[in-house]
Each structure stands twice: as structure tokens, then as C-alpha cells.
User: Fold these one by one.
Assistant:
Number 1:
Amino acid sequence: MPQSTTPSAPDAREVRNIPNAQQAPLSPGRSRPPGPYRRLFARPGALAFTAANLAARLPMGMLSVSAVVMIAGTRGSYALAGAVTATGLAATAVVAPWIARLVDRYGQARVAVPATLLAALGSISLVLCVRYGAPAWTLFASYAATATTPNTGGMSRARWAHLLKDDAGALHTANSFEQAVDELCFMLGPVLAAFLCGAVFPEAGTLVAVTLLVTGVLAFAAQRSTEPPAHGPASTSGPAPLRAPGMPALLAVCLALGAVFGATEVVTLAFADEQGHRAAAGAVLGLQAAGSCAAGLLYGRLRLTGSPERRYPWCVAAMTALLVLPAVAAGTGSLVFLAGALLLAGMATAPTMITNMALVQRRTPPGRLNEGMTLAVTALLGGIACGSAAGGFTTDHLSPSAGYAVPVAAAGVALVVAALAPVLGRRGGRDT
């Protein structure tokens, strides 16, 4: 009788004697181990506070665009709209670190909720003043009141730092995810704002943004189980984060990187307008943000070796090198080539900003993490304002193609500062 060709299951002793048996594929009944992002959000409360923070953070990419479209559309002056938003930016630079210090001192829920409600009143006041033709000075006063908006991204990163303080690898993944969320919000926010203001009515963008902001912050503040503990007045009365070793250089790099972002946005808008494709400018800029978002998520899956201090100059160097691509593509006069170049250039943005925020967290004194991260965001905003002005000046006096030299130059400055910061820090330590 012939033997059956159906293999029988080997017993345990046979399995142990099979060479490289441990390399056999997983059986159908076993699942692959979860990836870093699944492990991250498996932590209790993580998904809830992240979803709420996403709703609160999306308006950051909507409010300024909505204000510009609303004011320019009803008052017929982009100069007035730009001046109003610039005033709000200046007020934010002054007020935001103070709000962040209060968050560190008294807790996220106790400070973020009233600060958000005050900012919402400012936005509603702006809508009413624009709607009913109030004097121009009321627009400036109303928009300046929105400066109390808390740094929602910083508060989310502070929660991750609290939850993952003993797991450096998971914290790297969390910081990478947060940077990807930033890019997503600044990619979708302006598009949503422009659609609402154009397709519904001019004030719709601001009203939707305010609704999302208030709802998101209230839901975020309600997640008390993941909120970092308040540190009290004593822990925030020591040296300010601005004076912490290495922080001035980090903030200088943030200022230069902000100039990269501001100049790129203005110059790209001008280039698309020159080519007769003004409507496509948002999509082109969105590709840059999409490249950064994808790179950030991929970067978060890597298990990196070495310190962030050693990686930082290399990240800035990669960003500087890739920013040459849009400058070259602009020389061809093709918006399609420019879009592809911006997509590639954006891929170095997230790794650079992730490493930057990791260094900010390391160098900020204990108990003042929100303040330290808000200082970094404030430096970025200041750089965006400077870069926008420099990019606009170059575009007006030379050409949009020549304007792409501005972000390259700003990235070069960031590279020099990032490369020299450790040397200057050691020298300063010896001098003291």
C-alpha cells in the first residue's frame, strides 16, 4: 500500500531539530507584532487626546488665510489685510510665551480653556467688525486679541513627553507623528479656509475655524488622565528657557527655518501667478507639505542611533541641499517641474523639525516645557514674517524665479548656526 503524500505535523522534538526553524514564517493564526504607531496609540488615553488636539490644531492653518480673504474681499485692500494679520503675529510673539508659562505653572486645562475662549471672542469680534463696516482700527484690536490662542501642538507634545519619559524610542515616534500632524494641518487648513470663504460666504472660514478651535480645546482639556501635572510657581521661577545652554542657537536656527517657509510660500504664489496658474498655487504648496508629512511618518518608524545633536546639522544640510531643486526648477518656467521639486524639498523639513523639537525638549529647564516649545514656535513665526518680506521684495525687484534664492540663503544661515553651535557652546563653557 503506497504511503500517503499528506505530511503529518511534526512533534516538538522534530521542530527543535529543524535547522533555522526559528526563521520559519508565522503561522496563519499568529499576527505580526504591532508597528511603532500602533503601539503608541495603544496607550490609554493617547488616541482621545490626539483626536481632540487635531481638531484644535487645524484652525492654525485656517485663521490667517480666512482673515486675509475676508478683509480683502470686503474692504478691497490686501494691504489692510496683511497689516492686520502682521499685527496679530506680533502680538502672538509677545503673548504666546506668557500663556505657555502659565500652562506650565497651573496646568493645561486651567489656562488653555479661558485663553482659547478669549481668542475666540477676538475672532468673533473681527467677523462682526468686518461684517458691519467698523473702523479699521477695530480690526487690528480684534485680531490682536486672538494672540491668546494656546500652543496646542506644544501641549500635545508635552503630554507625550510626560507619558513616554522612560521610552526614548516611543518619544521619537510621537514627535515624528506630531510634526506630520503639523504639516497636515498647514496643508489642509488654507485649502479649507479658501473654499469656505469663496464658496459659502467671506466670514465662513473664520467662523468654522473658531468652532473647531473651541470644540477641540474643550475636548482636549477634558482628557485629564493624560495631562502633565502642573509644576506650580516655584518650578517656573528659575532661569528662563531662553537662557538655557544651547537654546539661543536653536532659536536662531528656528528663525532662519521660518524664513525658509515664509519666503517659499510668497515666492511660489508669485511664480504661479506669473505663469497664469494662480489657482494652482495652493496645490503646489500642498505638495511640499505632503512630502514633509510623509517623510515625518517614515522618520518616526526609524530606530535611530546617536544623539540628536549629531543628527541636527546633517538634517539642516539635507534641507539646504534639497532647496536648491525648486530654484533650479523655477528657472525652467514650468510649474509642473516646480511642484515636483517642492515635493522632494519638503521631505527634509519634517526630519529637521522633529530633531529640532527633540533638542528643545532636552534643553528646556524642567517644569517649563510648554514655554520652551512655544519660544521655538514664536521664532518660527518671526522667521516666516521676515522670509515673507524678503521673498516679496526679491520677487518685486527681480523675479519670482530669483526669489527662490531667498529660502536657499536662509537655509544656509541655519546650517552655519547649527554646525557652529556645539563649538561655540564648548568655547563659551571654557571661557566661563
Number 2:
Amino acid sequence: MPPPSHRHELYTVAQVRALDRRAIEVLGVLGFELMRRAAWAALSSLRRHWPQARRIAVHCGPGNNGGDGFLLATLAREAGLHVDVLALGEASSGDAGAARQAWRDAGGSVRLWQIGDALPEADVHVDALYGTGLRRAPEPPVAALIEAINASGVPVLALDVPSGLDADTGHVPGAAIRAAVTASFIAAKRGLHTGRAAAFVGALELDALGLPESLWQGEPPDAQLLTATQLPPRARDAHKGTNGHVLAIGGEHGMGGAIRLCGEAALRAGAGLVSVATRTEHIFAMNAARPELMAHGVDGPQALEPLLARASVLALGPGLGQSAWSHALWLTALDSGKPLVLDADGLNLLAREPRRFTQPAVLTPHPGEAARLLGGTVADVEADRCAAARLLAGRYDAVVVLKGSGSLIADPDGRLDVCPWGNPGMATGGMGDLLTGVIAALLAQGCDAWQAAYLGTGLHARAGDRAARQGERGLLASDLLAPLRALGNGLDDD
């Protein structure tokens, strides 16, 4: 297991390779010894997850990941398992070559993979095809093997990284192993926690291979996983004025629900006062359903200005639209200089009229909005979400929450955090409106932009996981409001 202080640290592939070299060159741990430790860690993981397994098939590539596989095969055979080994080539080099020879010396045989071959009968497949070095789609013969393994119906243990998954970005450019468990070594790879990784990694385990704390000294991580952080308790003499006043602006014709969700989330996240500036047609329904929201019909900038004067933080964009009314409110709100959270059509208008923010600002784009803000495509954003989040933060001088699986929080100085919570049930309308309200409420209660984004993203995702206990399919955004309140008060029974 990794030292406790490093369990939430995420590293790039280049950084992990530097750690490998340091272990060998500075700490004096031989490369073959690291490979042997990785094989032991992987075998331990296999026995924990599949204690009844009697037959395994190990699929070995040409590099060190394949070397891990050959040594795992040797150890598993010594432990009494029936082991079949398939390899991509006739030879391996360096430490991987020594590992391959160790398997042969132990009496093992190697079968070369050919397209059209049947897979051996197995209770578990072990993926040791490619490690962290693969950045492109696997070649057709390897892709055929990957697809055959995925189609076998047999669970897969991936060594270090599921083959075909980019360990830096979470991008999947071609065929990739869908693992039930991934046993990763030495340091956590950034790309295993965002993008499409969740669909391929399965249960993720990390083993530091017994390396000492000194290994990580002088190698700061590229990113961090969010940790579950509790908000401080309210002062006993608190009143509504001490907890901030959020003004939620949006709700064009037919989109009143978005701004209501945003406002209600701000209330549930602890804002002392929440006003809503919206189309007059939404006022009756909003007052009837949630009278705690101070709803105002505004027909233009003049009606908005007195509301701006009373607010401490703005939540701008849910249901805003892109009409002349929308644009006028958007421009007036931005020019007020108030701290704000910008989402939805607030971001789409920003893409049309870019500006750098001088006030505290949090932008919360999904990949489509991020692509418009960057002048690229969704594919560009998803190919390297970490780079996209950092580029957005620098371009607009704001904290950015790039939403999606493994949501990212970035600031203009390059800091990057990754959210480990959330679930597919949250891929439904209104979830982003809630997040906007939560972050705005935290800004109103005294958090700076980074703190509000960090805490708000975590609270929102954890509330989604709580709400999904009754099932992911059919999850509604409003289902998060009760667990959001509980988590904000430290009432976490996880």
C-alpha cells in the first residue's frame, strides 16, 4: 500500500517513470526486484478478489508490463494455479526478458497470439499487454486480442493500467481492456481517475511496492484527489446576514426550473439569503413551491440593478438562454464586479464575448461548453481533460470546474484536483444547476473561489452518490437536495 500521505496524489506518466528511475538509481532497488514486487502485489489482488480461481490466462506484451505478467504467471504456478501465458512477440528485452526466462525456467510455456486464435479457458484473465507508455490506439492484432478478452465474459485483472487507456489523460483512442480490477503500482496515475477511465479501470488498487517515503521527496504530484472535507460548524450567534446573499440569475421562457434548482441548492448549501432574478411568468410557481426563495420578475438591466446591489455573490446562467434579455442581464451582472459562478448559457455567452475576470469567479463547463470556450471540439477537450481545464483557468483567469466523469478543478496557477465521487445517474438535466448554486452558496459564506469550487464539487458528487443508493436510473437533480443538506452538516454515514 502507498504511504498514507501519498494516497491522494496523482502523477503523470513522466513523473512515474522518474520515480521508477529514482528507486533504481538512488535507492538501489533493482528493476527486476520492482517487477517481482509488482507481481506479488498483483497475485495478492487476484487471490483477494477471486479466491476460487483455479485457472488464469496471462496476456503479456513486449515491455515491462509484460515482464510483470511473466513473473505473476511464475508465482501463480508455484501457488498451484493452472496458468496459460499468451505473448504478443517471440522475445522480450531487459528485465522483461529476464522475467520471461524465469517463466520458462519454471517449466512454463508461451503461446504467441494470432488473430483468430481461441482464448484459453480461464477463471481470470490478466492484462499485462501494455503499461503506461501506450498513447495511441493498439495495432489491429492487439486490438483483436483486447476485444476477445472483453467479450469472453471472464473477469480481468489489469496490471498497472488497462491496456489501451491513456494513463495521463483517461482518453481511450481505440480498443481498451475493460478490467474488473486494476492493480496499479508505485504511484497513482492521473489518467486513471478522469475521462473514460471509470468504464475501464474497475476497482482500482494502489501498491507502493514497499518503497520508502524518501522516494516521493522532491517530486510534487501533478494533481490531487479531493478528500471528503467537512464544513465548519455555524457560529452560535450566526444570523442570515452573516451567511451571504446569493442572487441567482436565469430562467428564460420555459426554463424556470433550472434557476429554481440553482436557488434551492444555494439554500440547502447554507446561504443565508437567496434571491432569484427571472422571467415574471415563473414567479407564481416559484413562490408556491419554494417560498424561501425571494423571486423577482425582471424585464431588463434596470430591474436587475437594485438586486445586484443587495447581493454578495451571483449565480449566473442556469436557464438563462441567449436572447437579447439574456445578454442584457448577463452583461449587467458581469459588469457589477460581484464574485460569481458562471454556468450554462452564461458560459455560452462568454464564448461569444470572452473576457478575463478581475473578480473571484468560478466557471463550471461541461465538455461541450468547454469546447466552445476554447474554440475547439468536444473531442479535443476529452482527449486531454486536464490540459483543457488548466487552459480554461489561465485563459479566463478563473477557477474552472470541468464537469464529467472525474470532474476536474483547476486554477490559473495550474493547480488541479480530481473528484473521485459521482455516478452515471447524475447524467441528467438539472445537476449542473445544483452545482452552480452550491458553489455560489459557499462563496457567499466566505470561501474563496478555489475553496468554494473544491468543497462544492465534492459535496455535490457525494450527495449524488448518496441519492443513487436507491438506483442510478431515474435519479433526479432534486433528489440530491436532502443528502446535500446532510453532508453539509457533517451527517455522513458512509
Number 3:
Amino acid sequence: MDTGLAGAGPAGTSAVRPPYQAYKRWLDTIPADLLARRRLEADLLFRRLGITFAVYGEGGDTERLIPFDLVPRIIAAKEWRRLRRGLKQRVRALNAFLNDIYHGQDILRAGKIPAELVTRNEAYLPAMQGVTIARQTYTHIAGIDIVRTGEDQFYVLEDNARTPSGVSYMLENREAMMRLFPDVFGAVRVAPVGHYPDSLLQTLRESAPPNCDEEPTVALLTPGVFNSAYFEHVFLAEQMGIELVEGNDLVVRDDKVYMRMVGGLKRVDVIYRRLDDAFLDPKAFRKDSMIGVPGIFQAYKAGNVTLANAVGTGVADDKSVYPYVPDMVRFYLGEEPLLQNVPTHILRRPDDLKYALEHLPELVVKEVHGSGGYGMLVGPRATKEEIETFRAKIIAKPEAYIAQPTLALSTCPTFVESGIAPRHVDLRPFVLTGETMRVVPGGLTRVALREGSLVVNSSQGGGTKDTWVLEDEISDIRAGED
């Protein structure tokens, strides 16, 4: 079979990367039409399982199937160890930063971050000032978006410290690959990911308040069926064996949180919440919230329930704060960052603004509060009209934007209509913080299926891949813990 894997090497080369060589040997032995047949089977499988996502702001059917690519993204064991160390370091610094800004604010007084970027940030919640939480852990589940350049350097594209999504697709992608190509896992030694729900549940239990029962009760709080990630909420609750609840399933009595059960009320110690801060408690935040739990924030402040992730974590993944994360690593840990940021122009700075306006056709410009690939300009792919429209937006409100160069991103072999061809990818590994830190070996790989596209978001036409971390004979990859 002509695999087309000559594009699996570094940018500008035709060599097959060493991690892909065992996979290529297996791929060369399969019938030429097998991938096409298996792609149809994968589509049917994902539709039957209901693995879709919602697209807001569009007419017609807003439920879409996320395209699943059959060619895995493969990472060598040595590369993964290096990446894992950097991920853990970064999340430790982010947790230290969040604890600091809601207590002593040492980093602001030291002038390492402009105070107004934090205290005037819409994600900063003054109500959290001075609140003590279990283990001083704010982001129990972090999703760190990573890109890789053609020179094999990893860069952090953004941090997701609030309610990172996508882990269900990581797990289902592996399940699909094992169903569709069971024999390949005999030819390639791949680290498992199926233990993630158990690791997540253990992390949540470790994060329980000190005054709870010996076996903490954990529940997953969802906004409901209309949320774009509802499939994931159902999936994770089932996999962990915990109750999936909505706001009206919970009640607060004497600053403690209870679930309404058939046999009466049952206390809840840890809530893995998948709704935004503003809607969490109508008594504390938005009074018109119909999906929150009245009084839950007071129970949280009293130390009687753990919310994961913590309230107010959005400051840590704001794109205007992102450029300062390497400084957080140095300030809190006394270490040099193992993972670098993408070079970033902060457009609230006059010099950065001037540079960006002069080089818009070369840059990627993002809203500091944007997500999902919306509200951004990809200069090299934009029309003159789109560039000028964005220029006006930036001039009107420069503090709302950052700009980054379009890096020479690495590509990954991808099965498209013309065969196997290179496409740009990113990676979202998931870092869990409880008594220990755990990193599932791999993560969610998103792929820009359109030729030449740099935007991998599902809402913008991107797809997903199974992510393989190769094991070696002395690997400590399975545990993923310190």
C-alpha cells in the first residue's frame, strides 16, 4: 500500500520519523482500501454512540460529528517524558499563581505582572479573595494546548484552567482504534489511556474537604443537555461511576451540599462542575441563573465542599495573562520554564500595537477572552478586507487582543480524500492535581483537515486523532505521576 508517510518527517524532509516506523511497517501490509472502509465504520460507530458537539449561532442542525482521523499521532517515549515534566511544572506554577492572587498577591506587588491585568480582569472574582480551599489547589484538571514546530520544539499555545473539555474524545478515539485495528496494537507498543477516569476520580477524592467522610462522595454538575460538551459530561460520570446532576438536583442545608436521592438527601463532598462561575450560584453571582445551586458558594467558602475546578480560575487561562506564565514559573518555583510560550505581542503595549498593525498579514491575532477558534485573525490566510476589518477592531480596543507569529508548525500524516497527506495538529494533554500530579500519556490531538489550515478547532472544521505515546522497556509512562 502506498501510505504517503513520506510526509511524517520534520518539515521540509521526506524521512519517516522514528516513532512512526513500526506503524508504517504495519500500514504497508494492509489492503489498499482498508482505511477508507474503516473510516465509514468509524463514522457509523461515532454516530451510534452520539459523539457529537454543538455549534452555537448557526441555523439548522447544530449537532455535528467531529471528524475522526484513522492515522494516529505518535510521540516517542523520550519526547513524552520531556513534555510531561514541562506540563507538571507549568500547572504547579498556575496553581501557585491562583492561590497568590486570591491571598497575598506577592507577584503583583513584585511587579512581575501588571496588577490591572489581574484585578480588572473579568475572570477575576473578588469574592474569592481570602477564601481557603482544600490543598490550595485551584485547577484540579488542566488542559494545556501544545504545538510543535518543524524543529521539534514544543510550545504552549494556551492554558485551559477552568473547565477543559475533550478528554472523552481522547478516550473514545482510542476505543475506536482498538475496535477498528486491533492487530496494530500487537505491532506497536502504545501506552494505555483507559485508566484516565479512575485517575480523575482518585484526584477528585484526594481533593475533598478535610471534614468529609472517609470515602468522599463525588458528583458531576452539568448545565444540562443543551451544553456543547454534554456528551462528555454523561460519558465521564458513567466512566467514574458517579452521579450526573443538574442544579435542581442539589440543595444546600446548613452550608453543606446534598443530592436529592430517592431515599432522601445525601451529602456531596466534591463537585466536578462543568458550568461557568457566573451561573454557579444565583445568590453570589448572576441572580438570573436557573442552572446553578443557591447557597453553594457559601458552602464552598465554609470549607464543606470542594469545587473542581475552583471558582475564579479563569484568570489563569486569560490570553492577556498567558504571556506571563514563564515569569510565574521563575517567581514561584525558582526554575527556568521547561516549556516556552509562543512569542506573543501584547497589544495594550504601544510598541507591540505598532508592530502588529504594521505586520497584520503575517500574524495570528486573538481576542484575550476568545475560544473555539472564534474572534481571531489568521493573517496569512485572510483577505485584505478581513485584515482591514480586524485592524479597525484592534485600534478601537487594543487591550482586547494579543498577536503571535505563524510558526512553522509540524504536520502529522492524515487520511484525507486524496490519500495520506500532512496536516497541521496541536495537542491537549490533561494534567490532574490531587495528592500527586498525574498526566495521562497522550491527550487530545486536534487536526486541521483543510489543506494549509492552521485552525484545528472542531467548530472551524477540524478533526481529532488518537494520540499514541510509545512505551519502551524501562518506561514509567503508564503511571504518569511524580
